[in-house]
Amino acid sequence: MNCMLIKEALGYQCTPVKEGVFFLNSAFTHGYDPESLGAYVVDNGEGKLTITDDGNQLFTAQTHGVNITPRRIKKLDELLSAYQLSIKHTGEVTGTCREDEVGHFLARYFEASIRLTDAISEMFPGAPKSFEDRVGDILIKGMDRNRVTRNFTTVGSSGHQLTFPFAIDVNTDHAKVIQPISTRGQDPRWSTVMQTLGKLVEFKQAHESTTAFVVLEPGANPEGAAQAKAALVKYANILEFSSDNQLLSRLAA
After folding, report:
1. Which of 100, 177, 204, 225 is least surrounded by CB atoms within 10 angstroms?
2. 168 near 205, Cβ under 8 Å?
């Protein structure tokens, strides 16, 4: 077994870790976390492979405040059994297959991993907040809430209605509209980038004197963030989020 065979099986990025151990990085994420779902492929010899996440999925869930109990692990193990996988009491998702089954087995492994993230999402003490919700909380808690308008609507140059998640000091000569853009995987969420671009083109043509801000969620690779900024910078001030105080100092003034 080698990385070339694994790449040919699924086309994902494969990195040798040590002799007989490879790490496969998928195009999928945890859903509640931008980190990619991955798998370690361990060559056991004699044509047998072990596929495991080395406990990464449960560890990531715990960093988000999910309480992983033995009862919950048992419930998750029952879900995984349909995919010929199991989850140990120590948290590792694992399964075994023959070398000639690796393509089919890895596809099933990642399908199970996505199902697992959905099940873990239901264990959050509250629904995980989106980046947009986080920006809203910061604005409302950090400044006079009467200055903040949620789901602000206006009319663009074509006559169509435009909606921005937030606006500050509407109906004043220093009004601002704000569009957060979340990160998914290694890049900004491109569907939101393109929707925002179309919206801002119309907005700036109709409201040239009103300042627009785009707030980028951290976590994207530098190339992806740079591409998003290049697409939007003509029409908005781009702010890469780093802290509550930084956001307020730029938007509340």
Report:
1. 100
2. no
